[in-house]
Amino acid sequence: MKVSLIFLNKWVLVFSISFFISCEDSTQLIKELNADRQDPIGTATNIRMVYTDSIKIQAILIAPKHIDYTNLSFRYAEFPEGLKVIFYDAFGNENEVIADYGILYSDTKLIDLKGNVKLKSHEGSILKTNQLFWDAQTEWLFTEEPFTFKDIDYDFEALRLDTNKDFTKLQTGALIGTILVSEPLDTL
Predict the structure, then answer these.
(1) pLDDT tens digits, 16-26
(2) For residue 188, is pLDDT > 80?
(3) Could you give the dihedral angle defined by the CA atoms of residues 38, 42, 48 and 53, in that order, rounded to the nearest 10 degrees?
(4) Same domain, 11 and 52
Protein backbone atom coordinates (compact mmCIF):
# COMPACT_ATOMS: atom_id res chain seq x y z
CA MET A 1 0.00 0.00 0.00
CA LYS A 2 2.90 2.28 0.80
CA VAL A 3 4.45 1.66 -2.63
CA SER A 4 1.22 2.44 -4.46
CA LEU A 5 0.79 5.67 -2.48
CA ILE A 6 4.32 6.78 -3.44
CA PHE A 7 3.62 5.77 -7.04
CA LEU A 8 0.36 7.77 -7.01
CA ASN A 9 2.11 10.81 -5.52
CA LYS A 10 4.73 10.66 -8.30
CA TRP A 11 2.02 10.59 -10.96
CA VAL A 12 0.22 13.52 -9.34
CA LEU A 13 3.52 15.40 -9.17
CA VAL A 14 4.37 14.65 -12.83
CA PHE A 15 0.85 15.57 -13.92
CA SER A 16 0.91 18.83 -11.92
CA ILE A 17 4.32 19.84 -13.28
CA SER A 18 3.29 19.13 -16.87
CA PHE A 19 0.02 21.02 -16.33
CA PHE A 20 1.79 24.12 -15.03
CA ILE A 21 4.50 23.96 -17.67
CA SER A 22 1.91 23.85 -20.46
CA CYS A 23 0.10 26.90 -19.06
CA GLU A 24 1.48 30.33 -19.76
CA ASP A 25 0.49 33.82 -18.79
CA SER A 26 -1.40 35.17 -21.80
CA THR A 27 -2.29 38.51 -20.21
CA GLN A 28 0.31 40.39 -22.25
CA LEU A 29 -0.76 38.63 -25.46
CA ILE A 30 -4.40 39.60 -24.84
CA LYS A 31 -3.37 43.20 -24.17
CA GLU A 32 -1.40 43.30 -27.44
CA LEU A 33 -4.31 41.87 -29.42
CA ASN A 34 -6.74 44.39 -27.94
CA ALA A 35 -4.34 47.32 -28.35
CA ASP A 36 -4.83 47.37 -32.12
CA ARG A 37 -8.62 47.14 -31.95
CA GLN A 38 -10.47 50.15 -33.20
CA ASP A 39 -13.95 49.01 -32.20
CA PRO A 40 -16.46 51.68 -31.15
CA ILE A 41 -17.73 51.85 -27.62
CA GLY A 42 -21.25 52.11 -28.99
CA THR A 43 -23.46 52.64 -32.02
CA ALA A 44 -26.86 54.33 -32.00
CA THR A 45 -29.47 54.78 -34.71
CA ASN A 46 -32.05 57.51 -35.24
CA ILE A 47 -30.62 59.76 -32.56
CA ARG A 48 -31.78 63.12 -31.31
CA MET A 49 -29.36 64.76 -28.89
CA VAL A 50 -30.25 67.98 -27.09
CA TYR A 51 -27.36 70.16 -25.85
CA THR A 52 -28.21 72.49 -22.99
CA ASP A 53 -26.38 75.09 -20.94
CA SER A 54 -27.99 76.41 -17.76
CA ILE A 55 -31.28 74.71 -18.74
CA LYS A 56 -31.34 76.62 -22.02
CA ILE A 57 -31.30 74.60 -25.26
CA GLN A 58 -28.18 75.45 -27.26
CA ALA A 59 -28.47 72.88 -30.07
CA ILE A 60 -30.33 69.80 -31.24
CA LEU A 61 -28.46 67.17 -33.24
CA ILE A 62 -30.42 64.68 -35.36
CA ALA A 63 -28.71 61.80 -37.17
CA PRO A 64 -29.65 58.40 -38.58
CA LYS A 65 -26.46 56.81 -37.17
CA HIS A 66 -23.94 57.74 -34.48
CA ILE A 67 -20.77 55.72 -33.84
CA ASP A 68 -18.93 56.52 -30.61
CA TYR A 69 -15.14 56.02 -30.56
CA THR A 70 -14.50 57.94 -27.34
CA ASN A 71 -12.91 54.80 -25.89
CA LEU A 72 -9.80 55.25 -28.08
CA SER A 73 -6.79 57.36 -27.21
CA PHE A 74 -7.77 59.89 -29.91
CA ARG A 75 -11.46 60.17 -29.09
CA TYR A 76 -14.08 60.98 -31.72
CA ALA A 77 -17.69 60.40 -32.74
CA GLU A 78 -18.77 59.72 -36.30
CA PHE A 79 -22.01 60.37 -38.17
CA PRO A 80 -21.54 58.26 -41.33
CA GLU A 81 -25.08 58.70 -42.69
CA GLY A 82 -25.29 62.45 -42.26
CA LEU A 83 -26.55 64.85 -39.63
CA LYS A 84 -28.63 67.92 -39.02
CA VAL A 85 -27.87 70.37 -36.23
CA ILE A 86 -30.17 73.20 -35.16
CA PHE A 87 -28.34 75.91 -33.20
CA TYR A 88 -30.16 78.48 -31.11
CA ASP A 89 -28.72 81.94 -30.60
CA ALA A 90 -29.19 84.13 -27.50
CA PHE A 91 -32.58 85.28 -28.82
CA GLY A 92 -33.88 81.78 -29.57
CA ASN A 93 -33.43 82.09 -33.34
CA GLU A 94 -32.75 78.84 -35.21
CA ASN A 95 -29.71 78.35 -37.41
CA GLU A 96 -29.28 75.04 -39.23
CA VAL A 97 -26.38 72.91 -40.45
CA ILE A 98 -26.87 69.87 -42.71
CA ALA A 99 -24.17 67.50 -44.03
CA ASP A 100 -23.93 64.02 -45.56
CA TYR A 101 -21.17 63.03 -43.11
CA GLY A 102 -19.75 64.40 -39.88
CA ILE A 103 -17.04 63.64 -37.38
CA LEU A 104 -16.52 65.30 -34.00
CA TYR A 105 -13.04 65.13 -32.47
CA SER A 106 -13.72 65.19 -28.73
CA ASP A 107 -10.41 66.49 -27.41
CA THR A 108 -9.87 69.27 -29.96
CA LYS A 109 -13.59 70.21 -30.27
CA LEU A 110 -13.11 70.26 -34.05
CA ILE A 111 -16.02 69.18 -36.23
CA ASP A 112 -15.44 68.05 -39.83
CA LEU A 113 -18.54 68.18 -42.06
CA LYS A 114 -18.44 66.64 -45.54
CA GLY A 115 -20.73 66.25 -48.52
CA ASN A 116 -23.43 68.77 -49.42
CA VAL A 117 -22.72 70.93 -46.38
CA LYS A 118 -25.32 73.66 -45.99
CA LEU A 119 -25.55 76.37 -43.32
CA LYS A 120 -28.77 78.35 -43.11
CA SER A 121 -29.21 81.26 -40.74
CA HIS A 122 -32.49 82.54 -39.34
CA GLU A 123 -31.87 85.72 -41.38
CA GLY A 124 -31.84 83.77 -44.64
CA SER A 125 -28.12 83.63 -45.40
CA ILE A 126 -26.93 80.35 -46.91
CA LEU A 127 -23.44 78.89 -47.14
CA LYS A 128 -22.88 75.79 -49.32
CA THR A 129 -19.69 73.76 -49.70
CA ASN A 130 -18.44 70.20 -49.93
CA GLN A 131 -16.41 70.32 -46.70
CA LEU A 132 -16.46 72.64 -43.72
CA PHE A 133 -14.56 72.62 -40.43
CA TRP A 134 -16.06 74.14 -37.29
CA ASP A 135 -13.82 74.90 -34.32
CA ALA A 136 -16.31 74.83 -31.44
CA GLN A 137 -13.90 76.37 -28.92
CA THR A 138 -13.16 79.49 -30.95
CA GLU A 139 -16.48 79.41 -32.87
CA TRP A 140 -14.57 79.64 -36.15
CA LEU A 141 -15.44 78.17 -39.58
CA PHE A 142 -12.97 77.33 -42.32
CA THR A 143 -12.58 75.37 -45.54
CA GLU A 144 -10.15 75.09 -48.43
CA GLU A 145 -12.96 73.84 -50.70
CA PRO A 146 -14.95 76.02 -53.12
CA PHE A 147 -18.05 77.51 -51.50
CA THR A 148 -20.98 79.78 -52.20
CA PHE A 149 -22.40 82.36 -49.81
CA LYS A 150 -25.58 84.34 -50.24
CA ASP A 151 -27.39 86.84 -48.03
CA ILE A 152 -28.87 90.32 -48.36
CA ASP A 153 -25.49 91.97 -49.06
CA TYR A 154 -23.46 89.12 -50.57
CA ASP A 155 -23.80 86.67 -53.42
CA PHE A 156 -20.46 85.13 -54.31
CA GLU A 157 -18.34 82.04 -54.82
CA ALA A 158 -14.81 81.62 -53.58
CA LEU A 159 -12.16 79.00 -53.06
CA ARG A 160 -11.27 79.39 -49.39
CA LEU A 161 -13.17 80.51 -46.32
CA ASP A 162 -11.92 81.60 -42.92
CA THR A 163 -14.53 83.33 -40.72
CA ASN A 164 -16.08 83.74 -37.32
CA LYS A 165 -19.57 82.33 -36.72
CA ASP A 166 -21.25 85.68 -37.46
CA PHE A 167 -19.41 86.17 -40.78
CA THR A 168 -18.25 89.61 -39.59
CA LYS A 169 -14.56 88.68 -39.93
CA LEU A 170 -14.48 87.04 -43.33
CA GLN A 171 -11.40 86.07 -45.35
CA THR A 172 -11.59 84.23 -48.66
CA GLY A 173 -9.48 83.25 -51.60
CA ALA A 174 -10.30 84.36 -55.15
CA LEU A 175 -13.85 85.75 -55.35
CA ILE A 176 -16.46 85.42 -58.08
CA GLY A 177 -19.69 87.35 -57.62
CA THR A 178 -21.20 90.48 -56.11
CA ILE A 179 -20.31 92.11 -52.82
CA LEU A 180 -21.79 95.38 -51.60
CA VAL A 181 -19.22 97.59 -49.90
CA SER A 182 -20.05 100.78 -48.09
CA GLU A 183 -17.42 103.32 -47.16
CA PRO A 184 -17.84 106.40 -45.01
CA LEU A 185 -17.97 109.64 -46.97
CA ASP A 186 -15.03 112.02 -46.68
CA THR A 187 -16.09 115.26 -45.01
CA LEU A 188 -13.92 118.09 -46.24
Answers:
(1) 665 555 556 66
(2) no
(3) -80
(4) no
Residues 52 and 133 in one domain: yes
The count of structural domains within the chain is 2
Is residue 96 within 8 Å of 88, Cβ to Cβ?
no
Phi first, then psi: give them for residue 21, nearest 5 degrees: -70, -35
Give the CATH number, domain containing residue 43: 2.60.450.10
CB 156 within 8 A of CB 148: yes
Asked whether 136 and 161 are in contact (CB, 8 A), the reply is no
Structural domain of residue 135, as residue ranges?
34-179
Distance of alpha carbon 99 from alpha carbon 112, whole angstroms: 10
Residue-wise pLDDT for 86-138, tens only, equals: 888 888 889 899 999 999 998 888 899 999 999 998 888 899 999 999 888 88
Cα 186 from chain centroid? 49
Q: Is residue 184 part of a domain?
A: no
DSSP 184: P
Q: Are residues 105 and 18 in the same domain?
A: no
